[in-house]
Protein 1
Amino acid sequence: MNQVVEKLTLKDFATDQEVRWCPGCGDYAILKTMQKLMPELDAPKENQVFISGIGCSSRFPYYMNTYGFHTIHGRAPAVATGVKLANPELDVWVITGDGDGFSIGGNHMMHVLRRNIDLQVLLFNNEIYGLTKGQYSPTSEQGTRSPSSPTGSLDLPLSPCEIALASGATLVARSIDTVGKHLAPMIRRAYEHKGAAFVEILQNCPIYNDGIFEQIKDKKIAADFRVEVEHGKPVVFGKDSEKGIRLNTSTLRLEVVELGDDVSESDLLIHDEHNKVLAQMLSVMGGADFPVAIGVLYSNPKAGLVADSHAQLDTIRSKGRGDLQTLLNSGNTWVVS
Amino acid sequence: MELVEEQLGEHHLNEKDVMDVVVRFAGDSGDGLQLAGTNFTQTTALYGNDLSTFPDFPAEIRAPAGATFGVSAFQIYFGASDITTAGDAVDVLVAMNPAALITNLDNLVNAGLIIVDTGAFTAKNLAKAKYQANPLDDDSLSDYRVLAIDISKQVLAAVEPFGLGHKSALRCKNMWTLGLVMWLFDRDRKATTEELKAKFAKNPEIADANIAALNAGHAFGETAELPSGIHIYKVPKANVAPGKYRNITGTTALAWGLIAASELAEIDLLFASYPITPASGLLHELANRKNFRINTFQAEDEIAAVCAAIGASFAGNLGITSSAGPGIALKAEGISLAAATELPLVVVNTQRGGPSTGMPTKTEQSDLNMAVGGRHGDTPIAVIASSTPTDCFEVAIEAVRLAIKYMTPVMLLSDGYLANAAEPWKIPDVDSLPSIPVKYHQNPDGFKPSLRDETTLARVWAKPGTPSLEHRIGGIERSHDTGDISYDPDNHQKMTDLRKAKIDGIANDIPLQKVVLGNSSGKLALVGWGSTFGAIHQAVKRCRAEGLDVSHIHVRYISPLPRNLGELLEGFDRILVPEMNTGQLIKLIRAEYLVDAEGLNKVSGQPFKIGEIKAAIHTEFAELADQESDQ
């Protein structure tokens, strides 16, 4: 008779810790989505490890009833690399924010993605420093007024997905904190992906940067400001799916077009998540002229450093394990009698 | 205090039988003198002398030929009694060009022997060395005995039958010179011959040419009419304990100590490091030993290296990271995280000259303060220091033992001198090494991440992947009772006290401080740590032979200090602390024991000379005599 394995539920993944994010914080929605998704992944609970840096988002591991490590500012990818190298069986999740992941920890982010470490990076991007009380971050729009930029920030923002692609992430996706129906499948894709998966989650900070993503979240207008890309499907958006994205083959640029007499769906860009150049173009869409792309922008699963490192160890060790006494006696020796 | 240079009037090579000799091979980086030195070391060990060696590399990787800043040297001190330093002053200087001569002459004893390649004393090379006139042609070397040979010409003749090009043929100069020095000290060429055959197995003609050059250099000594007073010197064999020996550098000994520890603890090691001089050798050696329980990870920076090591320890491996001073500074926040989360971590610091980039290839002991106190917060960790190249093996095992047993970061202090210096090592019997128990928590009943061993105060090690032990750790202060985040004032006091008590408690688990040499109380104690061991030891030994009541105490455990050290120090009228810094251990022991210690400090990038320490001991006794006559 088969052993009956009790199915885990959302509650099994909640801890007894009081959640201490501000009321209305987007992190609550992400946490709920994750706790709900976890039982559906059918993964051993004891193999789940959440590793974070510093910042509001980095409190996340305290609320997941799995293994968790709240490390130091910006360094979660490096700690996660060590965890994964030590035990490749573990499912490692890096929880980070725009400041943690792309300011103080930018170097580690670049290298964890470059090495294609088989883990999931969930970057909560709220375009502001929350825990230190509202200073502008590396993803803040230029001109953001904050305690450290009272007359408007001067820095130009970076695009997390664009950098993730350039760094070598083999899955890059974007989603929205409160859109669980979209977010959950994105996290699942990241989980099932072989290699480094990077998910940018646009997350609202109700205290210091409230409403920054309102256009793409407000159900009344969101359809005009965001486009959900799906592999093999034309890139269509708008309340009545009346608009689309077309690749202008003479300028090699994307353009927004109205579907109608002159333009049909077959003229539109068909999303190909294996095409990195396309992914790069989609990743930087936004602003006044373009909708923000959400979905899996890029996917190219392959083995990374951890798998390669252990394969190398296996090859070396298959030729014979080292013997300590033999090592100590190796090389030029002499005997004094 | 001021150092008084001892007048080195030992005219060693005037005698036919000499008890100990220092030979220094110096030349361009490309002259192959490190190889010549290594082979001379090998044959000297086989001959039966005790010895110690030190390579002296330039910081530049490929300095222009003939430049003074490109001089590479290899020094060996060998003799009939115990040798613990690479030697104060040089008896025989091999100078392959004018730059090697001008940069090494200062340290040559009076009447010392200089072997020079006249073929390299060209106008161009003399100018590069900033010689106004050729020193071989005037009387500027009259205090020394000079053996001036056109080695280049000799070598070209010796290897002619092998049909090498001019450049390749000249590359055999190092072996010709080695052959001559081997003749001078009656050494056997067999081991070198075999090594050359193995090294050039794929190019037998190169091997043959090098062997021919080696033999020609030797034959030159036998047959040429050398200036009077230059002849074969026989250095009696040392009285060495029976056993099997090999020559080993501190770097190799440390790497092998870590490998041994992984076997003794039956645990996989993740060695995560970022390249830095002079610590990279450890990464190189371990990267070659993945057939053991070793994996290596070259991180993107020093911070990532320590963090990856911490991650590995969290996951149940032992994480080890390694660097030199500037890199250790970058790791400080990570080390604090390991201390706060109570995870095992070994941090190897191969110290070099500071501050900032300082002198990367030169040695110093100036990171003791940083090791003991260089972290934010009240963050004690264990600190231990190795004292000789061979001691690195044992200290590495001890660092791993403490890290695992006490779930704490341990900093292991080595330095540039220890890393590169080599000495004979009696190969230990693996079965005699103690096992290191590792306990991963398994039992879910009553599990909390804050559980700890009542004796050691070590926190439990519950690694991810273990069913029903899911828990969270982190850098935020945790409740003593539950392990959950806590900002409670009383709890912070309690946890701070606990972290201190845990490290202090290690004092009960380490050997009592012993006196290395001399009485356990008396007039003067020299208290050292780290690589000054050899020089202090010889100085104390020589002064004791003169009848002075001086003892040598050498501290391995810096944090915590051995529990009897204070009492031991009280038994001496005077305490002198030689250090290659401006006074770091001395502040620690003054603060800890309120003893009136004096410092002997040298920060030149060069190790202490025996003579410098001897002179300081003499000064101490002169002052003691003055005090006594005043009373």
Note: The domain at 10-141+152-231+273-309 of chain A is CATH 3.40.50.970 (Rossmann fold).
Protein 2
Amino acid sequence: MKPFKNRNIISIKDFTKEEIMHILNTAKKFKIKVNPILLKHKILASLFFEPSTRTRFSFESAMERLGGSIISLAEAKSSSASKGESVSDSIKIVDKYCDVIAMRHSLEGSARLASEVSNNPILNGGDGANQHPTQTFLDLFSILETQKKLKGLNVALVGDLKYGRTTHSLAYALGMFGARLFFIAPPSLQMPSYVTHDLKKLKAKYSTHTEPERIMPKLDIFYATRIQKERFGDPMEYEKVKDAYIITNKLLTKVKKNFKILHPLPRVNEINYEVDNTPYAYYFEQANNGLFVREALLALVLGKV
Amino acid sequence: MRAYKVYAIKDGTVIDHIPDGQGMGIIDLLNLRQWNRTVTLGIGFHSKKHGKKDVIKIEDKELTPAEVNKIAIVAPTATMNIIRNHKIVKKFNVELPETLEGIVKCPNPACVTNHDPVATTRFFKENGKKIELRCAYCERYFKEHEIEVI
């Protein structure tokens, strides 16, 4: 296992199974007990060139809870990037003012480029449609927490699989750990070929489906994502499929006892509010786990654990 | 006796076994119209292996590794012959290296390498019979017909 100190967290593909488990185990320790002075005198630069609520808040909260401090863009529009500054120039400047950088940028590969011009570690909070590794770690943490294992699980990824980057890196990670994947989506929003290409290389088992009903009794995890109306060229197509992917209590009548629903949030209407009160809803706990995973990552790359 | 359709060169490089029709592209790719010595292009030569082939002879120039890598992308069957004093001193098949730095443009318009002035493209060769590259930045895969050499 490569040391984590000064390591960049750019893509799930940069990590072995052993390294991922080390991150998840460290996060578990932070969930049990927080050390409020662990990152004292350390500064996180929070550079969200694109809007973010949960990821940004949880990075900043994680840093504060460990005793560190934060410098941050007030909003993406106020940054020098909006004046035409390149990613590499922005990072080179901010790098001088901090010990670690968490960033989100619309360009794919921007976090990788940032890691090449920065002396401090970069934590990728999303680079366009490419990667969002900290989300994947918190998703894996939540799956492991509820199922006690990752291998051999039946996991459905549901909704917009074409544009949803969270499902791309989660599919890859679950493929690494030997989960059985079910991709449930309208044909026009199915998993892109570059993701299934990777899954084939991993020899991961997956199948594609257009409706969830028949698969529900097999599943351990149902990972829902939002289907956005604007992704459909023809609004009639959206009207046809939108209700097929809404989770209601009726859909949950034949599920296994250990079954859990996850969602990267925000939801719009894909999970009915009545489901929140069932033992299967785990999405709010999942969002909460983002805090512990990001605490673990900050502590690891700063060499404090 | 073998009849030479293109005259021999004293010093330089002969690129042989170029896929039929790709010779002109290689002339442009290597900017050989600007080379101040003679460059000879033969099109449609008979090839036992491939039926037809193109051949390029460049006087007084030995190609750099970066130039050879460019040829490996557009003409993977090509062979290189380095000529010194009328003799072939080195002969080798072009081979795509594991990593290609700064010679291929990323076809993904959203890739940072198409926007940031300091970014140099980097691609990894995928295993397999056909040419396929993966961008180190946006992590997308690209097939031979999508690849554009810089």
Note: Chain A touches chain B at residues 11, 13, 86-88, 105-110, 112-113, 117, 127-131, 194, 197 (CB under 8 Å).
